[in-house]
From TrEMBL:
<dbReference type="GO" id="GO:0003697">
    <property type="term" value="F:single-stranded DNA binding"/>
</dbReference>
<dbReference type="InterPro" id="IPR012340">
    <property type="entry name" value="NA-bd_OB-fold"/>
</dbReference>
<protein>
    <submittedName>
        <fullName>Primosomal replication protein N</fullName>
    </submittedName>
</protein>
<dbReference type="GO" id="GO:0030894">
    <property type="term" value="C:replisome"/>
</dbReference>
<dbReference type="InterPro" id="IPR023646">
    <property type="entry name" value="Prisomal_replication_PriB"/>
</dbReference>
<dbReference type="Pfam" id="PF22657">
    <property type="entry name" value="SSB_1"/>
</dbReference>
<dbReference type="GO" id="GO:0006260">
    <property type="term" value="P:DNA replication"/>
</dbReference>
Length: 92
């Protein structure tokens, strides 16, 4: 699970099996403790949503934080990871 906002959202496309899919870039910012010292964490993460969760993703505005749940899988070229979103809820 990660708390983030989307900064890029592609158009809805359909898989060969007919499932809706949307590609995203999520942006996360937080502060955490590492070895007793505060550390600022800022990152962007590629993500994809498939099936019924696409409708929830489409309803989110880009300026609001959301809680994104899912799993990490290797990208098709094997150079990096993509988060496969299985659930998203507004962080309001």
């Amino acid at each position: 699970m990660i708390t983030a906002r989307w900064v890029e959202r592609g158009a809805v496309r359909y898989t060969p099996a007919g499932l809706p899919a949307v590609d995203l870039t999520l942006e996360h910012q937080s502060t955490t403790l590492e070895a007793g010292s505060p550390r600022r964490v800022e990152l962007q993460l590629k993500a994809v949503a498939l099936g019924p969760v696409v409708q929830r993703v489409q309803a989110l505005s880009s300026d609001g934080l959301a809680h994104w749940s899912g799993f990490l899988a290797p990208t098709r070229n094997g150079k990096g990871v993509t988060m496969h979103v299985t659930q998203v809820d507004s962080a309001v």
